[in-house]
């Protein structure tokens, strides 16, 4: 299962200093801002057990000074690594800020930056549509896995066609 800590949803709001203005044990330091995420993750683990894959979706950047960065995420996720099976890296969504350009593999640098700091698998997504590009990303060990979204919505046979591309 993949649970959502990205795109401005509740967990993201707790994690980002831009939205979390609490003064109790759930706000302030990065450890405090990550406390709710830890509570939720441990509750998920209690339900599903250690053998069930649990993936977190993150927004590696809030696209603005003072927002979360890949390094912030790595710092908050590092102590939770033993409870997680992978990190699926997206961007944005907390604020109404879009990236200035959406180019091929536009989110890959953020995913690769998180991978520098963690030892569990990291997944990159975002306009990675060719088999050769995906293979290159994996061969270069920038991330551990590549996900595809929109092409699969347009063509349910896309994955099978990639096998023969
Ligand atoms: C119609 C549509 C709906 C989406 N819904 C979600 C969603 O509910 N949660 C989420 O985390 N990402 C959602 N995404 C983002 C995708 O998971 C993916 O990160 C994004 O499309 C970039 O990858 P791609 O270029 O391979 O499509 C959605 C994307 C599209 C196009």
Q: Can you describe what's shown?
A:
It is a single chain. With 165 residues, the chain is α/β, with parallel strands linked by helices. The chain has one domain: TIM Barrel (Alpha-Beta Barrel), CATH 3.20.20.70. Helix content is 36%, strand content 13%. It is built from eight helices and five strands; from the N terminus they run E-H-H-H-E-H-E-H-E-H-E-H-H. A five-stranded parallel sheet has the order 1-2-3-4-5. The chain is globular, with a radius of gyration of 16 Å. Flavin mononucleotide is lined by residues 6-7, 57, 90, 125-127, 148-150. Flavin mononucleotide (FMN) binds at residues 6-7, 57, 90, 125-127, 148-150.
Class by alpha and beta content: alpha/beta
Uncertain runs: none
Query: What's the pLDDT, averaged over the residues?
Result: 97
CATH topology: TIM Barrel
The order of strands across the largest sheet is: 1-2-3-4-5
Topology:
Blueprint: E1 2-5, H1 10-15, H2 30-33, H3 35-48, E2 55-59, H4 70-77, E3 86-90, H5 108-115, E4 122-125, H6 131-139, E5 145-147, H7 150-154, H8 158-163
Parallel strand pairs: 1-2, 2-3, 3-4, 4-5
Helix pairs in contact: 4-5
Flavin mononucleotide binds at residues 6-7, 57, 90, 125-127, 148-150.
Question: Which descriptors would you attach to this protein?
Answer:
alpha/beta; 165 residues; TIM Barrel; 8 helices; single chain
